[in-house]
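Predicting holo structure, 2-oxoglutaric acid bound.
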Amino acid sequence: MSTTLDDLARRLPGLRLLSEPGDLEHYGRDWTRRWTPAPLAVALPATVEEVQGIVRWANEHGVALVPSGGRTGLSGGAVAANGELVLSLERMNHVLGFDAADRTLTVQPGMPLEAVHMAAREHGLIYPVDFAARGSCSIGGNIATNAGGIRVIRYGNTREWIAGLKVVAGNGELLDLNRALVKNSSGYDFRQLLIGSEGTLGIVVEATLRLTDPPPPAQTMLLALPDMDAVLAVFGLFRAKLSLQAFEFFTDVALKHVLAHGAQRALDGEHPYYVVTEFDAPDEAAQDAALAVLGEGMEQGWIVDGTIAQSEAQAAALWRLREGITESLAPYKPYKNDVSVRIGAVPAFLHAMQALLAREYPHIEVVWFGHIGDGNLHINVLKPAGMADADFIAQCEHVTKLLAATLKEHGGSISAEHGIGLVKRPYLDSTRSAAEIALMRGVRKVFDPNGVLNPGKLFEVE
Ligand code: AKG
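Done. Tokens:
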């Protein structure tokens, strides 16, 4: 161990520290897989005091820290490739309390999202933010990236569900932000500033989450559609006539990969676009109304085929077609774009982008899917067999520049829900103005004066 690490071990005798090559490899990377992990070591604190001790030590020794949750991020926000200390919160993974009057659950940051869901259900309530990585991602990571997911259309992003946060700032000080108050008009809301800050302002050590009533029983439908205009038309129809919980789209290319990865085909024939949608259907009348809306979409020629799940198992099988896409593409080392525009701008943006991709990538497989009702599109470009990683990334970065310009024209964002991290850092200025970025730098300096928190992520610290 280096003398620097010796000092950490001496100051915090109970702290679990790992430095075996396998551990450095495991904790030094996230799902981006682009960088070679090379952390100094991995610290797994079990208490707030240990987190504070690590941050103070990092300040004194000038060591960079990479806060780490489930490392399921796709923007390189949790990568440690430059001798940083990974500060993994995975041991801080307990429920700290439930408040029936406020309907809040207080948890530690390392709890997996799925465990949060289960803990909420024990009280007859739900924590409604949800997405495919629920079993692996952590609530702290969700907060650090303001995670979105498949139910934003009904419930909004993570930000809407955080009542209070305890955070260790870059100087080691513990901040108790908002104390779970519903109304608090007492100046700047640092809780909201911390949400989505990608571990650059502070380390979340405790979160108080708002819970809500479970939704009424739902029905899940899979639809096949002829083109993107039809997807948007059906979204308009369903949103007007049904109470939507989710409305997700994917293409035939995505379906091909997910079926090859073990999912079950649910509709015959081949169609360019598919939608998985879920809506409230508490009784027979609501189910009949949904059938009528399906019929209306078919009459209009917007829906070519459709199926309604008749059981929970069938609903899960339909969801797998959408939620299994990321995993099915992983072997192709996809270059990911996660963009958003205002919902009204989706059609114009989509057409501009399809033209751009057809021009720039005539021979490369591009997979589209995402949360169409939130204006959030995931675009995965698959690495052709035989192409060198570096050539592929250079080509994709060129197209991302063009994409960033197209997004700017349409008033969109280069990152809808994955964060900026390392991957999108070169394009931050396509979404945020120079004045905003200057303010961000100033804020970061105040929270983390010595630049120890996740340096290099979001923007380079000067
Ligand atoms: C989603 O499935 O909603 C994701 O955020 C993953 C996107 C991707 O794999 O590009």
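The longest strand covers residues 202-210.
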